[in-house]
Design a protein that fits this description.
The chain has twelve helices and two strands. With about 280 residues, it is an all-alpha fold. A two-stranded antiparallel ribbon has the order 1-2. The radius of gyration is 22 Å and the shape is elongated.
C-alpha cells in the first residue's frame, strides 16, 4: 500500500487568512500607495497650507493693527500676531489630518471598496489603520513645515524650541487622524460630514486660537480645556515662545492618549465592518 503525503502548506496562502486586528507589518505600503496617488497632484496636496497662511497674513496686515498685544503663556504681553501664529500652525496640522482621514477615507471605504481588496491580501486591519493614519500625519506635517517656514520668515518665532513644533504637529496629526478615522467608520452618507464640521468649526474658534483662555468665564474655561485642539495650541505656543512649563506634559499626554484611543477604535471598527 502506497502512502500519500499531504502537500506542504503554502505559507503565502496562510498569510492571507488574518484574524481581526492582526498586524502584518505592511502599513508602509498604504503610505507608499497614497504618495503615488498624489505624485501628480502635489498642488492639491499643498493647498491645505494656504488657508492658515491667509489667516496669518490677514492678522499681520489687518486685525493685528487694531489689537497689538495680548497676554502670552506666562502672562506677559506679546505681539498678537505672534500669539495667533502657533495656533494657526496647530490648526493647519489638524486640518490636513482630518481631511485625509475623513473625506478621502470615506470614499475609499464606502465607494472604492479599497479596503475590502486590501484585507484579501496579507494586510490586517491594524495595517490599514496605521497606514492611513501615517499618511494623514505626513500630510499634516507637510502643512506644518510650510507654515513654520512662513512664520519664521515673518519673525514670529522667539525661540529655537520652535523647531520642535514640527514633531508636535505630527503628534496633533496623529491624534486627529486617529479619531477622525474612527468617526468616519460610522458615517453612512456625505451629508453626515456636516456633523464633523459642526464640531471642528466651534473648536477652531474657541480653543484659544484667537483669545487667551482668561477671557472666558471659569465654567467655560474647563470646557475649552477638554478640547483636543486646545492642547495642541498650548503645546505649540509654549514651543514658539520658548516658555516651557510642566503643563505641556499634560498637553502631550492628552494628545498621545487620544491618538492611542483613536487607533484602537478605528482598528476594531474596520475589522467589524470588513471582516465580519
Amino acid at each position: 500500500m502506497v502512502s500519500v503525503q499531504a502537500p506542504p502548506a503554502r505559507v503565502g496562502l496562510l498569510l492571507r487568512i488574518l484574524p481581526p486586528g492582526l498586524y502584518a507589518g505592511r502599513a508602509r505600503t498604504l503610505v507608499e500607495r497614497s504618495a503615488m496617488v498624489y505624485r501628480n497632484s502635489w498642488l492639491i496636496f499643498l493647498s491645505g497650507a494656504a488657508e492658515p497662511f491667509l489667516y496669518l497674513l490677514a492678522f499681520q496686515l489687518g486685525f493685528g493693527k487694531l489689537v497689538t498685544e495680548v497676554a502670552g503663556p506666562d502672562g506677559r504681553p506679546m505681539s498678537y500676531v505672534a500669539f495667533v501664529a502657533p495656533a494657526l500652525l496647530a490648526t493647519s496640522a489638524m486640518n490636513g489630518a482630518i481631511y485625509e482621514s475623513t473625506y478621502n477615507l470615506f470614499f475609499k471605504l464606502r465607494y472604492a471598496k479599497l479596503y475590502d481588496a486590501m484585507l484579501a491580501t496579507p494586510i490586517g486591519p491594524l495595517d490599514v489603520a496605521l497606514g492611513e493614519i501615517g499618511w494623514a500625519m505626513t500630510r499634516g506635517g507637510v502643512y506644518a513645515v510650510a507654515f513654520l517656514a512662513i512664520a519664521a520668515a515673518m519673525g514670529l518665532l522667539a525661540s529655537w524650541w520652535a523647531l520642535l513644533m514640527v514633531p508636535a504637529a505630527l503628534l496633533i496629526g496623529l491624534a486627529f487622524s486617529a479619531i477622525g478615522m474612527a468617526m468616519v467608520t460610522f458615517v453612512r452618507s456625505t451629508a453626515q460630514f456636516d456633523y464633523i464640521q459642526l464640531v471642528l468649526t466651534p473648536m477652531f474658534l474657541f480653543a484659544t486660537t484667537f483669545f487667551p483662555l482668561s477671557v472666558y468665564p471659569e465654567p467655560l474655561q474647563w470646557v475649552v480645556r477638554c478640547l483636543p485642539l486646545y492642547h495642541g495650541i498650548e503645546l505649540m505656543r509654549g514651543l514658539a515662545t520658548g516658555l516651557l512649563s510642566p503643563s505641556m506634559l499634560g498637553n502631550l499626554a492628552y494628545l498621545l492618549a487620544l491618538g492611542a484611543l483613536g487607533l484602537w477604535a478605528s482598528t476594531r471598527r474596520i475589522a467589524k465592518l470588513l471582516l465580519t
